[in-house]
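Appendix B, example 12.
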Amino acid sequence: MPNYEATLEVKHDCPYCDITERHPGIRITAWDNTVMHIAVVTSDGQEGLDDFQRELSAELEYTVVSRQANRLEVVIRDRNVDPDSVTSLISRCDCWCAQPSVAEKGWERYRVFSWDKANLSRLVGLISAVGGTVRVGSVRPLGLPSFTRDMMVPVSNVLNGLTRRQADALINALERGYYDSPARVSADELAKALGLSRSTLSEHLRKAEARLLLNILPIVRMAREEMKD
């Protein structure tokens, strides 16, 4: 029996849909576990993040844990989840979704999985029944190898914002032993091998490291809550 994946776009009565519809320059990437909800918000400018914070404050209690030029990370703890929310309906239909979900331009995007294709149809029906609008992008069967691979965090989210030059520098640094302890190659040696100045190499690596760490920070933050000292 195959497993199934559906990509869904949902417009419904929720703060993220409402705010991103009013402010098309805002993009919200959302992560959940049993103890917290994390939203990473990016905007075209400072004003967009100010608008998001002000408008979300009228809807939910949250904590700002990180703010940079065009990136804001907020945490919501101990929230009361609406039984008619999309995530609740996904669970009710014996489905589950790969994180994160993304809200942009008034729509939320989900990658939903189930063992039974009928569950996906039931999910679309329930979302519509509570007043939501659903656009089904695709429904496809998955064999077990694809199913286990695609249930992981999408690669596009982990690598978001990474340039090819940064990726090349990082790959070469790892393969040549720059990050080994002790290092098998020095920064000067690595830079010479790549035909770069040491300062350019350092900049590529620093930006690559920062981008990857920022992209996985929500996962690390949630995992920390369940780690033992």
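Residues 198-225 form the longest helix (28 residues). The mean pLDDT is 88.
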